[in-house]
Amino acid sequence: MLSQSLLSGVRVLRTEARRNFGIVAPALNKAADPIQQLFLDKVREYKQKSAGGKLVDSNPQIERELKTELDRVAKQFGSDGKTDMLKFPEFKFPEVKVDPITQAAQ
Question: How far is CA 92 from CA 54, 63, 79, 89, in A?
């Protein structure tokens, strides 16, 4: 019984180690595969370009289209013009006071 549970535990550990290595391996700085290295270089380049939080490699036409779409969405959903339509809305649920239910003593 003990040997079976020990063998089962070893299998689980081996599977977990394989999964963890599969997740961590692409994040390493050195890549053995040249295609993987190109991918990592492009990801780093994109990270540098997107540092300001704006669109990457945009031109004035794309900026106009974005503004037009944001204006259309703001109009459709009744924005007052001050609301940032790119920000996820914040939901506030006030705590509702519930009256305790009292049972009449008999």
Answer: 29, 33, 18, 10
Closest CA to 55 of 29, 32, 86: 86
Per-residue pLDDT of the chain (106 residues; tens, 9 = 90+): 666 766 676 676 677 766 665 556 556 556 688 899 999 999 999 888 887 777 888 899 999 998 899 888 888 887 777 777 778 888 999 998 887 777 665 5
> Distance between CA 81 and CA 75 in Å, rounded?
9
